[in-house]
From TrEMBL:
GO terms for molecular function: (3R)-hydroxyacyl-[acyl-carrier-protein] dehydratase activity. The lineage of its organism: Bacteria, Bacillati, Bacillota, Bacilli, Lactobacillales. Transmembrane segments: none annotated. This is 3-hydroxyacyl-[acyl-carrier-protein] dehydratase FabZ. Its EC number is 4.2.1.59. PANTHER family: 3-HYDROXYACYL-[ACYL-CARRIER-PROTEIN] DEHYDRATASE (PTHR30272:SF1). Involved in unsaturated fatty acids biosynthesis. Catalyzes the dehydration of short chain beta-hydroxyacyl-ACPs and long chain saturated and unsaturated beta-hydroxyacyl-ACPs. It comes from the Bacteria. It comes from Limosilactobacillus gastricus DSM 16045.
């Protein structure tokens, strides 16, 4: 049985400011507002970064895995009633660990758990998996601001 997405790509783009070619979330599988989210990135050979990273051995750059986790986390944060219609900016990455490679054809699942929120910030535990194996983990801190406000 196929599970329907909780949020589609269009609904995601209505919430976060990222656009092609740097909007990496294909859909949200499940979400418990203010608690956790599971989202999906289908990694394809057509990704622009594979042309240079690395020719003959395409591997998703670690910084883009972190970016993908950050986008999933920003969806969770911005679905919170207190942060709705705002923008979440990545403020810190702690304890990032890379445990595997992400290659074309992989389906990367992004598991985000809210650890703490304050009036203008959020901290999450972020884990990316491929085939149920952890490929990356990190603690991400976000600063939340009004969409027009510069931080």
């Amino acid at each position: 049985m196929t599970q329907l997405a909780i949020m589609t790509a269009q609904e995601i783009m209505d919430l976060i400011p990222n656009r092609f070619p740097i909007c990496y979330i294909d859909y949200v599988d499940e979400m418990e507002p203010d608690q956790n989210i599971v989202a999906t990135k289908n990694v394809t050979i057509n990704e622009s970064f594979f042309r240079g990273h690395f020719p003959g051995n395409p591997v998703m750059p670690g910084v883009l895995i972190i970016e993908t986790l950050a986008q999933a986390a920003s969806i969770l944060i911005l679905k919170s009633p207190s942060f709705y219609k705002k923008t979440a900016y990545l403020g810190a990455v702690k304890n990032a660990k890379f445990r595997g490679m992400v290659k074309p054809g992989d389906v990367m699942k992004l598991h985000i758990k809210m650890l703490k929120t304050r009036s203008r910030m959020g901290i999450v535990d972020a884990v990316a998996t491929v085939n149920d194996k952890k490929v990356c983990s990190a603690e991400l801190t976000f600063i939340v601001a009004d969409r027009e406000e510069k931080i």
